Amino acid sequence: MTPTTSRRTFLLSAAIAAAPLACPRAEAKAPRNLKITSVKVLLTNPPQSRNENFVLVKIETSEPGLYGWGDATCTGSELSVAKMIEEHLAPAIIGRDPMQTENLWKTLYHLPYYRSGSVHMSALSGIDMALWDIKGKVAGLPVYELLGGKVRDKLLTYRSTGGRDFKQVEDGVNKLIELGYKVIKVQVADPELEAGYAVPSTAKQEAAEREAYAKGGAPRQIWEPDNYVRLLPRLLEHLRKTIGDKAQLLHDVHERITPSQAIVLAKDVEPYKLFYFEDPLAPENLDTFRIIRHQCSTPVAMGEVYTGLWEGKELITEHLIDYVRHDLAHVGGISTGKKIATLCEPYGILTAWHGPGNISPITHMANCHVSLSVPNFGIQEYATGWGDAVLEVFSATPKYAAGYVTVTDEPGLGIDVNEKAAAKYPYKRFLRPTIRRADDTPWPY
Known about the structure:
- 40% of the residues lie in helices and 15% in strands.
- By secondary structure, the protein is an alpha/beta fold.
- The chain has two domains: 36-142, Enolase-like, domain 1 (2-Layer Sandwich), CATH 3.30.390.10; 146-412, TIM Barrel.
- The longest helix has 22 residues, at 118-139.
């Protein structure tokens, strides 16, 4: 035996002898034989607006006081999602171990056989979030720690502003800049139309919508893409002249134009250096994403309409987009979000999870936990400004400061639901407006 070998043997023996003292075996914190005892669905509308019914999922366990909350909100399909959970998914997990997150996710994904779709995946998303909430509480750790720990302390965020004309949009941008926002989404109305996406409607349109809802039907909105394609570059030119580089700008097309118009528009907005150009195409138009990528450098974001686990996979693996916009309330929850982010990482594609006001604070908290933990984070949409009723129902929301959001280090998702308060704000039936061309053609086509 050489002196070197002898020294290695001595060091190894010393390390083994010291190990039980230096690193005692941790005791398992999970209660023994932990089981899911109930899956409850709670429908509530604390904003009391037409389009903000929340579908909340509470999973209770055999350990007294140990439960988790998730969000299965799917605007326009709330009752269907609730029934999907209660009648079809919940029976499959009663009596199962809630710590087996991946096992249960796969079980519920394949259970209906004809899987995917907004109703099924929203239901699965709510259950998945609640399971992660339980897992974090058992571990005594926030969910982001279970996903690998924080990669950053805070999350760049943005807000949207829209107006009937350029000046209204400019004023909205300046107000958000004063609040500390560094990235702002902008929209402007077509002056020839009564309504539009993310812009104020005219008084005439608002009256027509109230009348339609009073009759129990869906209101009608007119949309013409031609004027919009010409109008948007002029809005961006105006904003760059008036606000300069005080904030980065992004824009959401919302899939309301044809593929050929999307190519033209992506090239026309290129000089204004958008943070990203969102949802320029319907998800079926994969070939046109390739054309956009080959013809211009405008960063593209896509994903909020996806509901399948790997929908849009080719957009990632062919690097046809720059940001993924999946909604964790519709695409399978935290488990799916982490997988999508991991798939995107080697391609340099960043996350920008969908965070509108018509999903509950539970999903916003889940968004933040995933965003804090993934290396390839880009930006986190967050709808701040919750009303008093929402804050009465939900114990926490992400915290905004100077252009960023973050969450606390509370175990699980760090949010609870006041069920008695939620019961004060009942479900309100809501139908999304139908979007049509002036000749009554349903649109998008």
